[in-house]
Amino acid sequence: MREENRIQTILAGTLDGLLSPSATGHDTDQLDDSLWGSTPTDEELVLARRASCATLAGAMREALSDTLTRNQAADRLGITPQAVSKRLASGGLIALRRGRVNRLPAWQFYEDAVLPGLKQVISIYPGGALSLTIWATSPSPDLDGATPAQTLTRRGGLARVLETARALTPAA
Fold first, then answer.
1. Quick one: DSSP state of residue 159?
2. Which one of 6, 55, 79, 115 is CB 3.0 to 4.6 Å from 152, fit for a cystine?
3. Which of 168, 90, 96, 80 lies closest to 129, judged by CA?
4. Residues 33-77: tens digit of each pLDDT
């Protein structure tokens, strides 16, 4: 155990040494202003952060507008609320967290079941619950204008949705 701690300390020191020139602004590897534009001012960064926060808050509000509580999801699936929690923990469902409460986006459900192949889609999708919700409910040109959630209900839909989701991963 002592050897492991020593190795972690060495690695942390090495990483700090590699990052410190960038963090202090003494990095010699500067971006070309003719390609990327000038470095934003502090005021521009503040405005960009505010705009980003507003966009994120709007997306969350929109996503939360069509969600179920754990109990509602349990009733819809004909299972216990604890079983819903187990599906969340195992990656079979996703939830948007708002404070201490989980809300389950309704797009995951089809009739009185979970969408076919949902667990596979969740496992390969490269983003979190909010970005997956936005993606799954947005029309996709790769899916002939249908949403991924709609496509999962069709014959052969799972393969098409998985192919589309894989195209979003860094490996693609």
1. H
2. 115
3. 96
4. 888 998 999 999 999 999 999 999 999 999 999 999 999 999 999
